[in-house]
Design brief:
It is a single chain. The protein contains 6 helices and 27 strands. It is α+β, with helices and mostly antiparallel strands. Strand 26 and strand 27 (361-365) form a beta hairpin.
Length: 371
């Protein structure tokens, strides 16, 4: 292998794989990036045996070949280089990296032993805009359970639904048992994901990084217990998790008796200040729905208490209830809207959060007992 490639392209390529490769893998090759020089491009592949990223970058290839070297070490080397063009060539069991007056010799492993994942053969595929898909991830990923033993809750559910006008939409749903989020977007094509299949959390984390331009179109295909995401110069595939996602519609109230609408920024700032006095154990904050205002308060037996009023529009009778303040902060941090609408019936009923100017997302937060 012998090629020349711009430092910036190569740095981007190695940066993309840092979250995929294993840091202390039992299989040494899972810490490596697979490099293939062919035609007029350099292909970089990384896998943890569950997900795999394949990306192509333009290069001047003088001699084709393959190699496998530590992704972390290679990335550190690239970040240290000053010259704009990098030369890569294999010399024995080393990769010689040359840029300007700098030269590194990186150890390799036999590239023939690199553990490529089996190719995914899509049964059907759909297309969605990169910006919309990234927004869906941002608005839902925080609700995935971090407990890997909670099968069915430790992944993201993807399904086909329809808008008010009957247009097909792709909906991403997550829950950890105490809160729920869904976000959706129009798509074209055919949805063919199995009913019991879930997207792993790591897939959403890496896809969020890979989507760089809002107007890029991504193809999403589903094969035998696997999914593949294809974007400009990139192919990202994953095994799907086998699990029964709960019937989330059962926890979304069909009606409500109280509705409160408040400015998002004022609400967020009040929660941030009040949360200082929230209990470290359960992060509980009291919400008082009152005519013309929302009062948020918190009490900490060791530190003190806090209270703040926010102008709000209330429909229905006044009510007091309690919530984990972090759950509301997560929703406000993941969304962008001038106003937020809260809907609930009784103090111990789930609270629905909506963005008044949108019908493509919804959030549910379960209440807490404060007495």
């Amino acid at each position: 292998m012998d090629l020349h490639i711009t430092r910036d392209q190569l740095t981007v390529g190695l940066a993309r794989v840092q979250g995929i490769v294993e840091k202390r893998a039992t299989h040494p090759q899972l810490e490596h990036a697979f490099l293939q020089a062919q035609g007029n491009q350099l292909r970089i592949v990384a896998t943890d045996s569950t997900i795999q990223l394949t990306a192509d970058y333009e290069a001047r290839v003088d001699a084709e070949g393959i190699a496998s070297t530590s992704a972390a070490v290679f990335f550190q080397v690239l970040k240290s280089l000053a010259a704009p063009v990098v030369r890569l060539r294999t010399v024995g069991n080393k990769i010689k990296v040359t840029a300007g007056s700098a030269e590194f010799n990186l150890n390799t492993l036999p590239a023939e032993d690199f553990p490529h994942m089996p190719k995914v053969t899509s049964k059907a595929s759909l297309s969605v805009s990169g910006g919309a898909f990234k927004r869906m991830i941002e608005e839902t990923a925080f609700c995935i359970s971090k407990d890997d033993n909670r099968y069915g809750l430790n992944g993201a559910h993807l399904e086909e639904t329809h808008g008010a006008s009957g247009d097909p939409r792709l909906r991403l749903v997550t829950t950890d048992g105490s809160r729920l989020a869904w976000s959706e977007t129009p798509f074209e094509g055919v949805f063919a994901m199995g009913a019991r299949m879930l997207l792993p959390r790591k897939v959403l984390q890496e896809m969020k990084k890979l989507i760089e331009k809002d107007d890029d179109v991504w193809q999403v295909g589903f094969g035998d217990r696997a999914a593949i995401f294809t974007g400009p110069g990139l192919s990202f595939q994953s095994r799907l998790m086998d699990g029964d996602f709960p019937d989330y519609r059962q926890v979304v109230p069909a009606a409500f008796r109280r509705r409160l609408e408040v400015e998002r920024d004022a609400f967020s700032a009040a929660l941030r200040r009040t949360s200082i006095m929230a209990s470290d154990r359960n992060r509980s904050v009291r919400f008082s729905f009152e005519p013309g205002r929302l009062v948020v308060s918190a009490q900490n037996l060791d530190a003190g208490d806090a209270r703040e009023e926010i102008p709000a529009e209330l429909s229905g009778e006044p009510i007091q209830t309690g919530f984990n303040v972090a759950y509301f902060q997560d929703v406000l941090g993941a969304t962008r809207s001038d106003r937020v609408r809260l809907e609930l019936s009784e103090p111990l009923d789930p609270c629905i959060l909506r963005l008044p100017d949108r019908d493509d997302c919804l959030f549910v937060v379960m209440p807490m007992r404060l007495d």
